[in-house]
Amino acid sequence: MLSKQIQTIITKHTHISLQKVMEYTEKSTFGFLLVILSLPSALPVPAPGYSIPFGILLIILAVQIILRKQTPWFPKKFREKDINISKLKGGLEKIQKFITFFEKLIRTRMTWIYRGGYRLFGVLIMCCGISMLIPIPGTNTIPAMGVFIIGLGMIEEDGLAGLAGALTALAGITLTLLILFLGKEALDLLIKNFI
Predict the structure, then answer these.
(1) Distance (Å, rounded) from C-alpha 48 to C-alpha 82?
(2) What residues contact residue 33 under an 8 Å CB cut-off, 6+ apart?
(3) Mean pLDDT of the chain
(4) Are β-strands 15-17 and 82-84 bridged in parallel, bridged antiparallel, or unpaired?
(5) Predicted model pTM
């Protein structure tokens, strides 16, 4: 189970490299990495400091998904760099509940969606990764949640989860564009007065 793998990673390590994370993979390396890299920003209480470096790694993964690479590749500098995950340990119980909730909903179905739309998922993940690079509140959590759900669906080949993740990603990308063009304050005012 993915939740147990993540629990093992967080409880056994205070720092971990991307190479080590990949060693925990059983099924889909791409899906597993998407979940791991989006998780800190997708959590209801995001861990600060992860969005920009993990956004860069998600963009690298997205390019490879678009190119239909069989196994993920990262530059040695990224692959061997230790990542401090000690900040996540305090919220381990929340992490477990968060992942377990989604795991109950995921199962193999509508597999043709991932086969037919694989490159499109890559494009969405890339846009979400770019959104995570923007240091403005509201541009991280929803795009990261979209990537998280797409990654979970990819692990189990759950096309319905893929669609849900794609819609969440699109909502996150749209929100980011609105914030960039209207500004956070203008968007908050618009929502308050018209929704």
Answers:
(1) 17
(2) 18, 21, 22, 25, 57, 61, 72, 151
(3) 82
(4) antiparallel
(5) 0.83
